[in-house]
Amino acid sequence: MRPALIQAVVFAAAALGVAPPVLAQERIPSHCIALAAGEATVQPAALNDGLEDGSVLIRYIDHASFAIVTHDGTVAVTDYTGYIGTQDVVPDVVTMNNAHSTHWTAAPDPRIPHVLQGWATGSAADHRLDLGTMLVRNVPTDTRGPFGEGARANGNSIFIFEAGGLCIGHLGHLHQIPSDAQYAAIGRLDVVMVPVDGGYTLRLGDMAGVVRRLRSSVVIPMHWFSRASLDAFLTEMSAEFTVVETGGAQLALSLDDLPSAPTIMVLEPAYLD
């Protein structure tokens, strides 16, 4: 439409008290703008989304840190260092061992209701925490000093998480082969997280012996500083255990779907982002 004609239409419409066509078009609400209005946000899924009653989610976060999650959203984090990712997840309980700084923090998130230290402070750590759908307890073990010096009595804790009928053990920074009394206190472990570095913790052959003695259905390697140390552990155990490279950071388990043969499940660590 020519400019002169547009101007005439506008004046004529104004004289008649009718909105000119061009202006009327400008007043049509934009569905696109309406849809885009407001700040775009992404709401991360809760860790227990889709988790059935009787199932437990195990998420490898980093190094020796795992999230253990029950169907009702109860969350435990092992060897908590203060950072688990950018998601604002506040665990119900965190456990820590202080053989090295990569296994604990002196300043945990103050919103966490229960912070369980695994090392002795005058006497051996003694925890038995009932969270309803999860029971957390510990078995103390001895460690070397942070630089390999002399023994520290009760310097580490093996933490056991009982949830969904499963017994899940985290060996922590294990420096000693457990005694018969300690094995008895640990009890059955359906799932066990095992440090496989072969140096900072137990030597590879000794750690393999601990794994054999525990006879867990699922073994999850952790605390591997390189693929070489992980592969050395897998080679050591492959004649007796099925090895599954999951390619992911987490798995959900229940008593009903534990593997029929002892299985090493390799998880790839990933923060909660």
Automatic annotation (TrEMBL):
One Gene Ontology MF term: hydrolase activity
Keyword Chloroplast set for record: no
Region forming the signal peptide: 1-24
Keywords: Hydrolase, Signal
Tagged with keyword Hydrolase: yes
Pfam annotation, one family: Lactamase_B_3
Protein name, UniProt field: Zn-dependent hydrolase
